[in-house]
Amino acid sequence: MSRPRAATVRRVSQGLFLAAFVVLFALTVWPTGLAAPVEIFLQTDPLAVLTAQLASKVFVLDLALLGLPVVVLALLAGRIYCGWICPLGTTIDISDRLFFAKTRSRASSERRRWKYYALAAVVVSALFGAQLAYFMDPIVVLTRTLTLAVFGPVDSAVRALAGVGWVRDTYTALHGRLPFLADQSFFPAQPAVFRMGEVVLAVFVGTLALGAVEKRFWCRNLCPLGALLGVISRVPVLRRRVSDKCTSCRRCARDCATGAIDGDDPKTHRIVECIQCYKCAAVCPEHAVRFLPQASFAGREARLDLSRRRLLAFGAAGLGWAAIAHTTTAARTTVIGNSAASPQLIRPPGALPEPEFLDRCVRCQQCVKACPTNGLQPALSEAGLDGLWTPVLVPRIGPCSEKCNLCGQVCPTQAIAPIRAEDKPAIFIGQANIDRSSCIVWAEEKTCLVCDEVCPYKAIEWKIVEGIKRPVVNQHKCTGCGECEKNCPVQPLAAIRVFSLGDRRHWGRGRQRQWRYGIQRADEG
C-alpha cells in the first residue's frame, strides 16, 4: 500500500468508526426498531471487560469472547486500535488539528510511563473489588461525556425543532413510508437532564486542551487502555521497517503521533508506543519507511522501562482506592442480605445484588442514556465513593416505566441483567411509603386519587381508618417504580416516596415471584 493511500485509508477508518460510535449512541435514545449492537464498543473494550471480571471475580465467557478480537488485533498489528479505531483518539486528533496545529510535541520518556502506572492502579483496584477504570477508560469517558454533557443540549435542540411546522410535517410524511419508523417516536418523551453534566464536560474539555502541551497527550501519556494494548503488543507481526535509504533527517521522529521514534536513531522505534498511524512513512523524503509483516526483531524496542518503585506506588494507590471506596460505601449503606439499603439507592430493575453490581458496572451511562423517562441518573453520594456515577432511579425526575426494559438491553457488562417487560411486576427495586403528615387524604382529609390512578401495578389500596377511607401501600404489589412519587401533587417533596428498603434483588427472581404472587394468593385465600 502506498504511503498516501495508507494515510487516506487510516483517516477513512477513523471517520467510519467515529460515525458508527455516534450512530450507535443515537440509536439508544432515538430507537428506529432496527436491531443494532449499541453497546458493542464497550463490550469489545478489553480494559472494561478485564476490570469488570477481575472486580466481580466472575468469568463471563460472552464478555471475554467479545473483548478477544481487539486483543488478537493488538498481537498482530500492535496498537492499531488506538490509531485506526478508538473514537476518543479520533476526537483528539480532530481537536489537535483544529486548535493545536502549531503545537510542537516534545516526547518525554517519563510522561509516557504514566499510562502504565495508571494501568497498574486500575488493575490492582479491580483485583481488590473496586472499579477505577471508569475514570480513564477512553470508551467509557467518551460515552459518559456524550450522555451527561452533550445529549441534554442536543435533546433540547431536537425538541425545539419538533415545534417547527415543516420539520414535523416532513417527519410525519417519512413515518408512513419508512418501515423502520413505524410505531416509533423520534422525539424523546421526556426532556433529558442529567446531574454532573458540567463536571464531566469540563474534564473532557481539559483532556482535549492537553493538546496544547503535546499532540495526542492523552494517548501518549495517560490512557490505560493504550497501556494495556502496548503490553499485549510487544511483539506484533506487522512492524515498522527502515531501509538503508534513511539519511537520519529525523523528520519521522518530529512527526510521530506518539513519540515512538527515537530522535537520535530514527531507525529504532518503541513498538509499544506505535499506533500504526503511518505518519513516519508519509513524511519520509527517501521512502525508506514501510510497515510490513516480519519475523525479525531488528529496529524495535519492546522494553517498557518502568520504575519498579513507582509501579509499586501506583499499585498501592489502587489498593488504597479500593480500601477507601469500600469503607465509604459501607458507611453510607446498611446491608441487608446482598442488597444495599441506603434509602435513596434505588437501582434499575435487573441490577445484580449490590456488591456484584458495583464490581461489574463500568459507569458508562448507557442505561442512563437509554432510560425514556430520564429517571435514571448518575449516583452522587447515594452509594458512597465506590458507587460514584453508578445508575440510580430518582423517581421525582422520572419513574421506571412499566413497559420498558432498555437498561438491561444496553448494559455492556451485564451489571444489569436483561429482563422481559412482562416480568417487571415481580422485580422489586424499592417500595413506596406514604408520609401521612403531608398526604392530602391523611393529613387534610381531602379527596386525592393520583397515586392510585397512576400506579401500573395496582399497589394502592384503600382502608377505613377512623371512619375515613385512606390509601395504603400493598407491599406485595409495589415494585418501587416511582410512578406515584413522580405524579404526587404535593410539593416540593412528594407525600408518597419510594425508598430502597423494599429492594429484593438479593432474593433472586424465583423468590421475588413467590413474594408477588404466592404470598398474595395465600393472603387472599
Proportion of strand residues: 5-15%
The backbone outline, from C-alpha atoms, is elongated
Write out the strand line-up for the largest beta sheet, numbering strands in chain order: 1-3
Low-confidence stretches: 179-187, 335-339, 521-525
N- and C-termini, Cα separation:
78 Å
How much helix is in the residues? Answer: 40-55%
- Rg (C-alpha, Å): 27 Å
How many DSSP E strands? 12
Structural class: mainly alpha
Number of helices: 22
Report the biggest beta sheet as strand number plus sense, adding barrel if it closes: 2 strands, antiparallel
Q: How many individual domains?
A: 3
| Residue-averaged pLDDT | 86
Description:
The protein has 525 residues and is mainly alpha-helical. It has helices at residues 3-27, 40-43, 46-56, 61-77, 80-84, 87-99, 109-127, 138-162, 165-177, 197-209, 217-221, 224-232, 251-255, 279-283, 308-332, 354-360, 366-370, 406-410, 440-444, 450-454, 483-487, 509-524, and strands spanning 238-242, 269-270, 289-293, 300-301, 335-336, 339-340, 376-378, 391-393, 431-434, 460-465, 468-473, 496-499. The protein folds into three domains: 3-163 and 187-240 and 297-301, no CATH class; 337-415, Alpha-Beta Plaits; 424-524, Alpha-Beta Plaits (2-Layer Sandwich). It is elongated and about 100 Å long. The protein starts with a helix and ends with a helix.
